[in-house]
Amino acid sequence: MTYEEPGWKPLYVSSIVGGGTPGNRSIRDALQRLARAADSVEWSGGEDETGVDVVFHVTGPLIAPPDYSGMRTGTLSRKRRLITVQVAVPVELEAVPEEEALRVFARDLVDATELARTTVARRKDTLPVRQAGQVAERAAQALTN
C-alpha cells in the first residue's frame, strides 16, 4: 500500500524568502515563473516513484543567508514518496536581470532533480526518481527558449 497524498506530483518548486526587498524582487519573480512553468508540464502515473521538492532559499532582512552554498539534499520521506533538495540563492543574483536569474534557476532545477535521483538511487527500499528530471527539463526549455 502506498501513501497517495492529494495533489502528489513528481516535481514541486517552492521558495523560502527571508523578506521581500526591492533587491530580491527579480529573484522572487523569476522563481514564481519557474514554479508556474514546472506546474504546467504534463506528466502521468507516478505510483511507483519518488517526487522531488526543490526549495530555493532566498536571503532577506528576516533571515540570514543559508549556512551552505549550492544545493544539498534534505528530508527523504518514503511515506510521502518525496525528497527535498534545498538550493541556496546567491545574494549576487540580486544584481542581474530577471531573465538571467531565471536561466540560472532553470539550470539549478534540472541539477537538483539529478542530485535527488542519484541520492535516492543509493537508498534501499526507496522508489526511484523517474519523471522529475523530465518535468524540470521541459520547464527549463519552455522558459529559456
Q: What is the overall pLDDT average?
A: 93
Amino- and carboxy-terminal Cα gap: 41 Å
Count of DSSP H/I helices: 3
Order of helices and strands: EHEEEHH
How many domains make up the 3D coordinates? 1
Helicity, as a percent range: 25-40%
Q: How is the main sheet built?
A: 4 strands, mixed
Tally of DSSP β-strands: 4
Radius of gyration: 15 Å
What do you see in this structure?
The chain has helices at residues 25-40, 98-121, 132-144, and strands at residues 11-17, 51-58, 71-77, 82-88. The protein has 145 residues and is α/β, with parallel strands linked by helices. A 4-stranded mixed sheet has the order 1-2-4-3, covered by helices on one side. A hairpin with a 4-residue loop joins strand 3 and strand 4 (82-88). Helix 1 packs across helix 3 and helix 2 (98-121) runs antiparallel to helix 3. The N and C termini lie far apart (41 Å).
Quick overview of this protein structure:
The protein is an alpha/beta fold.
What's the arrangement of secondary structure elements?
Layout: E1 11-17, H1 25-40, E2 51-58, E3 71-77, E4 82-88, H2 98-121, H3 132-144
Parallel strand pairs: 1-2, 2-4
Antiparallel strand pairs: 3-4
